[in-house]
């Protein structure tokens, strides 16, 4: 029978900079109805984590940190039928608390993890990979030969999106900050790379598309790229604002959408694309198949000990990260 156990976790009691994160001992109870207790093997580090820490995404305090991890179920509570002790699982989008060595959580958030996917790989890609999955498979009906503009092409989501886009026969124009990141983006399939600090992105996109612009822009940056993204769209194109690394996008002037070519803007959230268990399983299954077969590589370029979350957040916000990052347990 499951018993209470001692664990470690990152918690915060006020919003602010990385220094508000604290490494603490916590007691993890037995799982209740519909819950499981998971022993984590690896934890995902995502830019969205900083939104909770700063208060951009409000959360009752005190709170745990993180929404993505992988591990093994230690025990299952009453009413849990799809999972059992010993099962390998991963998850994203659950209640805060993933930055921990173990936790109790609702079983409904779990995704069965195939043996072919390692725990660190799962923690590095569940949120990023499912984001890439809906961007590639749900947000737009791409046609073979389409060209897309992808901001942050050397980031964790960007590298997965680029590889997936190439599987769909798309041409990818990626933006990056440095030549080192440009090389990484090219190595993962980017057809053209624009260093946004040195070039006019929209002008370069027009040049690469014979003045037409692109049918889709995938923008995870937000405030600083919004105008450029609009200016890069073809007539009746779609701007997908799926992140706010530089801050929220500005208020939208509907008339400007007409002036820019009757363009569309959407601000999707991953939660709305994995809320349905069947759709989540379908997207995860396609993602896992690509990764297991080697068609999509997951680059883990930063590893931090879970207790070192302050440094991890500091470096994440500094923009020095490339590809995916994980916290090791």
Tell me how many strands there are.
16
For this structure, what is the CATH homologous superfamily of the largest domain? Medium-chain alcohol dehydrogenases, catalytic domain
Instruction: Report the oligomer.
Output: single chain
Characterize the largest beta sheet: strand count, sense, and whether it forms a barrel: 7 strands, mixed
Q: Globular, elongated, flat, extended or rod-shaped: what is the shape?
A: globular
CATH fold name of the largest domain:
Quinone Oxidoreductase, Chain A, domain 1
| Mean pLDDT over the full residue set | 94
CATH 2nd-level architecture of the largest domain: Alpha-Beta Complex
Give the distance, in angstroms, between the N- and C-terminal Cα atoms.
Answer: 24 Å
Helix-strand pattern, N to C? EEEHEEEEEHEHEHEHEHEHEHEHE
Low-confidence stretches: none
The portion of residues forming beta strands comes to 25-35%
- How many H/I helical runs? 9
Structural class: alpha/beta
Total domains: 2
Helix content: 25-40%
**Any idea what the radius of gyration is?**
20 Å
Instruction: Look at the structure and give the CATH class of the largest domain.
Output: Alpha Beta
Pfam families: ADH_N (PF08240), ADH_zinc_N (PF00107)
Domain Enoyl reductase (ER): 16-327
InterPro entries: ADH-like_C, ADH-like_N, ER, GroES-like_sf, NAD(P)-bd_dom_sf, QOR-like, Quin_OxRdtase/zeta-crystal_CS
Organism: Antrihabitans cavernicola
